[in-house]
Amino acid sequence: MLKKEGEIRIPSGCAISGIIDKKRNRFNGSDIIKSIALMHDRSNGLGGGFAGYGIYPQYKDFFALHIFYDNETIKHKTEDFLNAHFEIESAGNIPTRKVSSIANKPLIWRYFVQPRIYKVKDLCMDEKEFTARCVIRINREFDGAYVFSSGKNMGAFKGVGYPEDIGDFFMLENYEGYIWTAHGRFPTNTPGWWGGAHPFTMLDWSIVHNGEISSYDANRRFVEMYGYNCALQTDTEVITYLLDLLVRKHNLPIEKALQILVAPFWNEIEKENPEKAKELKALRTVYASALINGPFSILVGYEDGLIALNDRIKLRSMVMAEKGNKTFFASEESAIRVICPEPENIYHPAGGEPIVVKLEAKI
Amino acid sequence: MEYLIIGNSVAGTSCAQKIRFNDKKGQITILSEESFPAYGRPLISYYLAGKVDSNLIQYRNDDFYRENKINVVLNCKALNIDSKNKKVKGSNGKEYSYDKLLIATGSVPFVPPVKGIENQKNTFTFLKLEDAKKIEKIITDKSNVIIVGAGLIGLKAAEALAGKVASISVVDLADRLMASVLDSQTALRIQKYIEKRDVKFYLSNTVAEVGKDSVVLKNGEKLPCDILIMAVGVKPNTEAALTAGIKVNRGIVVNEYMETSVKNIYAAGDCVESLDILSNQNKVLALWPNAYMQGETAGSNMSGVENKFAGSFAMNAIGFFGIQLISAGIVDPKDEKVSIYIEENEKEITYKKLLTLNNKLIGFALLNLPDRAGIYTSLINDDVKLDSLNYDITKKDIGLNVFPQDIRHNKLFRGNNK
Amino acid sequence: MSISLITPQFEVLRDEKKCIQCKVCVKQCANEVHRYDEEDNVVLADDAKCVNCHRCVVLCPTKALKIRNNSLEFRDNANWNGKAINEIFIQAETGGILLSSMGNPKPFPIYWDKMLLNASQVTNPSIDPLREPMETKVMIGRKPKKLEFDKKGKLITEIPPQIELNMPIMFSAMSYGSISKNAHEALARAAEKLGIVYNTGEGGLHKDFYKYGKNTIVQVASGRFGVHLNYLEAGVAIEIKMGQGAKPGIGGHLPGIKVGEDVSATRMIPVGADAISPAPHHDIYSIEDLSQLIFSLKEATNYKKPVLVKIAAVNNVAAIASGIARAGADAIIIDGFRGGTGAAPTRVRDNVGIPIELALAAVDQRLRDEGIRNEVSIVCAGSVRNSSDIVKAIALGADAVYIGSAALIAIGCHMCHSCSTGKCNWGIATQEAELVKRLNPDLAYQKLVNLLSAWNHEIKEMLGGMGINAIDSLRGNRLMLRGVGLNQKELDILGIKHAGE
Amino acid sequence: MKKVYAFEKNCLGCGLCEVYCKTAHSKSKDIIKTYRKENITSAIVIEEILSPKAKTYFALQCRHCADPKCVKACISGAMYKDQNGIVKNIKEKCVGCLSCVLVCPFGAVKRNKDKERKIISKCDLCIETGTPACVENCPNNALKLMDEEEVK
Known about the structure:
Chain B is of the alpha/beta class. Chain B has helices spanning 10-22, 44-48, 62-68, 129-138, 152-161, 184-195, 239-243, 288-302, 373-381, 405-414, and strands at 2-6, 27-31, 70-73, 78-82, 87-90, 95-97, 100-103, 107-110, 123-125, 144-148, 167-171, 199-202, 207-210, 214-217, 222-224, 227-230, 233-236, 252-253, 265-267, 272-276, 281-283, 315-320, 323-329, 339-345, 350-357, 360-367. Chain B starts with a strand and ends with a helix.
């Protein structure tokens, strides 16, 4: 019997695409669907998904939990748990439309929640840590329930199918956001579990990823020392946790965190001025086990913007371009041109060169 | 510049070579009274024995003369030196002018007067290739050969002829062979060894009279004689030098630059007297290496590069009948203060004699123990104090390990062969 | 006086057709096995003296010599085999404990050989180290829990001192005394050339070798030989030796005969005096005592040197290692039972301790379970034989490895297990000047450089095959390993899956 | 010029240089045949130095002197220094007078024990094969072919 994510590591190839409007002008999901659809051949119909930021302005202070349920029983059980830990502001189905190619859909629910304050205080945590732990707990202990999105004013939409069909299914043309990312998946071995599709998310973090990291177990065993549980055994999961650990728990500036994930080579470090070299050396020395190795290109959405990241020797394609306030990223240039016929500043980020596009501060 | 060299043996050759090294342009002429290209005189016994042919006996090959642009005039004896006009008259009727002249006329055999010597028409000396060639022509397996002189030349002649003739008898006035090098015991041992090779010795004896086909010895004994070889000794050939009025004692007198008493005339080799560093006196040291170095020193000074000859001492390496005898310095001392160390092995016919005086090695003789003899020679040559060495040289076979490390390393790593 | 029951262990076979009586074997055998009989012009051998070190075999210009196990047999008995019987003969004759050298030779499982490595195929490109950068540099030392930057983005966390290694390999502790000065010189110079470190062992640091300080770990062992302030400050790190894999629980003994002038000066003991290292450190009877020593050494050297602690792999190694990490050690060395020694009681060598692979896996997992693995380095020691052993050790969780026996083999050791005799024909485990000079440091150091350069290259090839371009990404990456022929318990302890899973 | 230098601190006195020297100068070029059938004298002398602590050794070959005494002493013209500075002996011309042995201050010219025509055994730096056999086969790198200047 085929094993699903979490029971086994499934290597996969992929297509990714992302758009950000740094002035926080919102636009609907049509373009991102169009872009990822162009790279149809890079997926195989076994996974597709999207993340949008700024899509829930009316609930922007609530954690938006997107949950797959296998059946009603587990839904009730999970909702009891949610009720016990959160004030649920709103709950309901995520709207979908019938698409012929999408079958076997689970129950797909959405809750806008706030942690129950006394519980947070009891545990001496902040609300993010509390929410994260609850999400991890559901995903680990509630067989048949899977929280696939848990950030604020953002949401992931994913499933088994080609990404354009998934976008159609979730009716993303009805959502407007200032960051969109998309993923089309080419797993080599999967029974097709909706939870296994990308993006992988954790609080505000959402990651779409093309690649297969060979440092996986080194990264996993490192991050698991800090309370994470890599239940899915996927690359996106471990990369998300690494970022969460470095940025949220260790308070490192995002740029430093990225210098850890794709650390410069030692001989490049030696060329830097002494102070810079000392800092880079410290980062590599202390966080050697957080170095991500193997081929990958990833797009990381988070509350402040969008990050594009390649492995150190650029073993996966990744191109970017700009037009007006928008910055586009995609596995292939054509996937940018299809939605932005006259792009500017086309650039291929070098291996290990992180590109961080930050949203302008909220007014 | 014109350089003229009288004499075509080792001193002449090394002189010419050195001149050419310093002066690429000057004209170099060698006059030789012989009809052969230069050869090693000591090789004539090997020639007679058939061990070298007339080709191989040549000291330097033709390329040497071509490359060094040395003109050799054969069959030309220097009859007269006109030092005023710087000209030499040759026996070929030509005159040779010079700016610098070297006299390297070597030695001539010393033949004592012997009664009736004119009766034996096959009387020879044994110094030149010509002598060997003459002897070679007439010997048969019936020949009875008498050799007068049991020194180096006589014994080498005997060796060359052994087995080729009916009998060989060696006669010497001394009581032992090679009296200048060997003590009587060793001489006797060698004598017995050689006697087994059908050579008879008549010692403390001499030829009293020469008949047509026999000789009569001093003790009255009569020996058949078809060939008589006179190998009593040699003396410096100073004939040419005397024509120039050069100062001559036993040999030509030279200074340390090998200059004679006449300006622009130098002399080198067996014809000169030079410093014997062991006796600190000028002596005729008729030695091959000596001649080479004197010729070279003369050549250097003649061509404008000042060089001194440091002096020398007696040394010899002799092989005959399979015996190797190497000796140097004083081996038969008169001075009673000399300590003598002797080590011998009758069975192996080996013998080692070391002579020391005032904390220095002054001489040695090694019979059939040639290995590393040069180190002893260097101890004499370099005036080495024996107590500065790592061990007592009489207690152990010699090696470079005798030298303290710094000296040894200086020799091995800096190529210091002094 | 009675006759000895001990029979020779080896036979010297000389092919008379090949022997040219050159006497090289006679001159080269310090055990005086060979002798030349002038009368018969023949070279003869005394088998009883032979230790099978191959010196004569290797130097014989005509390859006329072979050494083999004595073909003399006892009656078949799986239990009472020849070795068991001979050992009894020896002890009955001498009344002493049996002594051996080098590591445990018994056929216990070698887990390195029961683990296989992964490589990339299709979904993930392998990397060619000849064309792409490939990093094997590692930093050994304590790491802070996290890094902190100020508001301007300036690093404010001070990083404790680290040992910077160009490759994850170090030469393990071998004292001057147990090995020769030339062997030390070779190790020191090779370490310098390679950008790694060697270890003084417990015998102090010879004055000629202070110049290699940047590539030296100085050891402090129970005998405290040669320990003084300059010594502590001479190296890049200080190692406290608590135990040794070859002889856990046992001290050391350098016989006085090996304590010549130089060794005496280096160890700071009288010429000819036995150098006895006690079994325990007599100032360390518990973990808090160890912590005190660690911090005494750090105080003495102004916190400029990492302090490493070396222990033998024993039953409770994981818990002990955790204690050492918490006691303040910057790195922990786990020394397995196949590690070498100059001399150890045979029974201890062969029966005490546990396999390094299991110990290493257990320690790494334990420190991770406690969340402190990233703060301390782990060095794997005890019979690391080749580059794939190293790759497997690092995948199991080591930061670096120590090699001792392999280094000695590179410079000529033939594993004859006779170090304790002091007659090492290869100039390694001896203090006899005439034998020591047989090890030309110029040649020996080059061999070490060659060996480790080759290994480093092989490590890079294997890393590249896995699609990894920095050794950091291999450390603890147990998914890169698969077991073969291991039972579930072993797989669980090693933390790896079985091949095919 | 390059010469063979022996370093005492590395020389073991094992004698392998002699074995390989003999073989290199044999007809058969086979060690065993060289020893069994050809009575060759090696051009090397191995000396032992008595020092208080341990025996040390060095191997010695012809130093190829800048101003070679053996060449001057040679009565037959067999000994000469070639254009590369190597002191050689033309075996056809050599008559075995041993004058070279008499004057060599290193004792580095040996009498050949072989009954054959070749009388003198001295180092020719194995010029025909390239690297001297002694250097090539020294187990401890005690013998090195080095330039004079390099050594100084």
